[in-house]
# Entry
Amino acid sequence: MGIEKYTYKDFPATGILRIPKNIQVELGFHRIRNIEIAYEEKVIFIRKENPKSSHNKRLISENGYIKIPKEIIDIANITSEDQYCLYVDESNKQMVVKIQ
# Structure
């Protein structure tokens, strides 16, 4: 399938995003607790952890909450006034968070 837009919201001041249960199941996140978060030019990628990767590692809560690392928020100059669009990249089994 490709990349499908899921939602468009203000970026939370806490840096905590929620991945809905149906998307967790679709991407296979419901079976794991460890994910990795990568950043590249105003785009944050959330995917299953690769043990050989040097990207940020985080735990996903049972309710689907993840904390975007402060280093990424600082490097990207993200504020609570920014908006983000959440995409599901089914072919690469990852969430894509695009900062607007």
